[in-house]
Q: What sequence folds into this?
């Protein structure tokens, strides 16, 4: 008597979501001191919900790092967006343009 093993069959269903939007906000952050900090946030349009988000910077003379990247706090429609906190690791002064992204769906 031999036992046969069978791998389960898996069907993958691809169903694109219509109406997904990527909403952006660009912010000019000016760092004037060592270990400076700034943030930039963006909200989803009315009638949509947040799926995710993130941030990036366009470069510049000041080294900056993301300290936090997360949904806006508090919940509810007023906080239906994404927030990114930026900081200079050391001796960073100057102005840098950063962008925060929110992925929103109906």
A:
């Amino acid at each position: 008597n031999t036992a046969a093993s069978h791998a389960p069959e898996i069907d993958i269903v691809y169903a694109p979501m219509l109406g997904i939007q990527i909403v952006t906000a660009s912010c000019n952050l000016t760092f004037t001191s060592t270990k400076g900090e700034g943030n930039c946030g963006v909200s989803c349009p009315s009638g949509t919900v947040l799926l995710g988000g993130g941030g990036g910077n366009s470069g510049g003379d000041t080294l900056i790092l993301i300290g936090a990247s997360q949904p806006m706090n508090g919940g509810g429609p007023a906080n239906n967006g994404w927030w990114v906190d930026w900081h200079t690791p050391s001796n960073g002064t100057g102005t840098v343009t950063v962008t925060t992204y929110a992925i929103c769906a109906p």
